[in-house]
Amino acid sequence: MSHTAPAFDQSVTLAFTGASGAPYGLRLLQQLVAANCQVLVLFSDAAKIVLATEVDLELPESIDEIQDFLTARFNAKPEQIKLHGKLDWFSAPASGSSAPKKMVICPCSMGTLSSIRHGASNNLIERAADVILKERGQLIIAWRESPLSTIHLENMLGLSQMGVTLMPLAPGFYHQPKDINDLIDFMVARVLDHLKIEQSLVLPWMK
Ligand SMILES: Cc1cc2nc3c(=O)[nH]c(=O)nc-3n(C[C@H](O)[C@H](O)[C@H](O)COP(=O)(O)O)c2cc1C
Questions:
Q1: In this predicted model, what pLDDT tens digit does every residue of 42-89 receive, in sequence order?
Q2: For the chain, is the Cβ count within 10 Å smaller at the N or the C terminus?
Q3: Cβ partners under 8 Å of residue 123, min gap 6
Q4: What number does the ligand 1 atom closest to the CA of 21 have?
């Protein structure tokens, strides 16, 4: 019997929501592609507005067009970047039997964080996160808001108690960043470290 080697080392779901910080998510996507991951990409409606506002990136209208656009932009292999619409309940991330075991939401809004905390599952991002939780997979929420209300803090505590990794999009300065890309890479490196994906963006502080 002949065995074909899998095309990708692993699959990760990456969701963009409407918090500030779109450049972090784009850099993370680029790094996941470079690390030969298959990436299932989800955008909330607000994420598209933030992308246009923060990086002048107007995504095309249709799911197929967005997929082609990102594949070309990140020089991905065919099928490496897969886009799913917000109500695509038949997609892999929506089902425990087919979802990747790892999911990152970057950037994550307080709205989506709250919905996940309460199990709303009203769109594919919330459902995908719900699936990760019920299947005991790895969920990383790279969130951004300031200041935090008691509601935000309570939601984060609840998620943390369920095993979710909550990473504030708040880069350190001890690696002496020279420009904005160094700040972005600081955070993306931390996310990749938690995913156990080798990265050379930022080396460990101490050996
Ligand atoms: C430019 C821009 C920046 C925003 N920044 C944040 C933010 O940093 N954190 C946050 O929780 N919401 C932020 N919002 C508000 C969210 O986009 C809004 O609450 C939205 O309903 C979130 O929906 P989503 O979670 O489905 O993406 C921002 C909105 C815009 C347009």
A1: 999 999 999 999 999 999 999 999 999 999 999 999 999 999 999 999
A2: N
A3: 44, 86, 87
A4: 8
Reported as type and span, the H/E element at residue 29 is helix 22-34
Residue ranges of domains in the chain = 10-195
Q: Does the C-beta of 177 come closer than 6 Å to ligand 1?
A: no
Specify whether the backbone of 44 is left (phi greater than 0), alpha (psi in -120 to 50) or beta: beta
Q: Closest Cα to atom 19, ligand 1: which residue? A: 111
Domain 10-195 sits in CATH at 3.40.50.1950
The string of pLDDT tens digits covering residues 110-150 is 999 999 999 999 999 999 999 999 999 999 999 999 999 99
For ligand 1, is residue 49 a contact (CB within 6 Å)? yes
Amino acid at site 111 = G
pTM above 0.70, yes or no: yes
Check pocket membership of 53 for ligand 1, CB cut-off 6 A: yes
Cis peptide bond N-terminal to 107, omega within 30: yes
Q: Measuring CA to CA, how many Å separate 196 from each of 85, 138, 153, 155, 193? A: 28, 11, 27, 26, 5
- Block residue for tokens 């950037």: 107
**18 Cα to the center of ligand 1, angstroms:** 4
CB proximity list for 90: less than 8 A, separation 6 or greater: none
